[in-house]
Design a protein that fits this description.
about 200 residues; alpha+beta; Glucose Permease (Domain IIA); 1 helix; about 25% helix
């Protein structure tokens, strides 16, 4: 066959063109349906992320807690300075223990963003709230959590959990271990709490 001779191309039939258009239209409608279902969710997630970052930046610009500036996480319960007390495995206590009946509501000592609601070996059920100045407020040995999740905003006084004895406190009188971490280092929370 000579090189300049063209092979005749058969035109698609009317029926095959209609089928092709219907398939493309169906795929386009399916894509639009998926986008319609995903976009509100994506938009909501993006909005939540932006709001959380804005709140985080605003918290970082606020002052760290000072002496007698924070309310107790367990109002009306006796506060004792147990900072530095000996603990198992040669550790020292990096917080204070506040004793109260099991299921007593634990209140956030500060406004902030919930960074953790979960478990660890020592603290058992724990909640961490990042507050003004980026200080981490650590609540451990909880019996249960309040209806909160990571990235939620809490205000001072909001309930974040309930007194228990989870983690390595199993079998001890119910209490909350309250710790404060500034730049990753534990500081004694006792002087920062208001005494009633």
């Amino acid at each position: 066959m000579p090189a300049d001779e063209k092979i005749p191309q058969s035109k698609p039939s009317f029926f095959s063109r209609v089928i092709s258009i219907l398939i493309k239209a169906t795929l386009l409608l399916a894509l639009l349906f998926v986008l319609d279902k995903l976009l509100p969710s994506i938009s909501q997630q993006t909005q939540s992320f932006v709001v959380a970052k804005w709140q985080q930046l605003s918290l970082l610009q606020q002052a760290l807690p000072t002496e007698n500036s924070l309310p107790s996480p367990l109002p009306e319960q006796n506060l004792t300075d147990t900072w530095g007390a000996a603990r198992s495995q040669g550790r020292s206590h990096e917080g204070i223990d506040i004793f109260a009946p099991r299921h007593t509501p634990i209140q956030s000592t500060t406004q902030g963003i919930v960074s953790k609601v979960g478990e660890n070996n020592l603290g058992g059920r724990v909640v961490v709230v990042v507050g003004p100045g980026g200080a981490g407020h650590y609540y451990a040995h909880l019996e249960d959590y309040a209806d909160i999740a990571p990235n939620d905003w809490v205000n001072q006084g909001d309930v974040i959990g309930y007194v228990g004895d989870s983690g390595n406190a199993k079998g001890t009188p119910p209490h909350v271990h309250y710790g404060i971490y500034i730049n990753g280092s534990a500081v004694n929370p006792y002087p920062l709490l208001q005494k009633e």
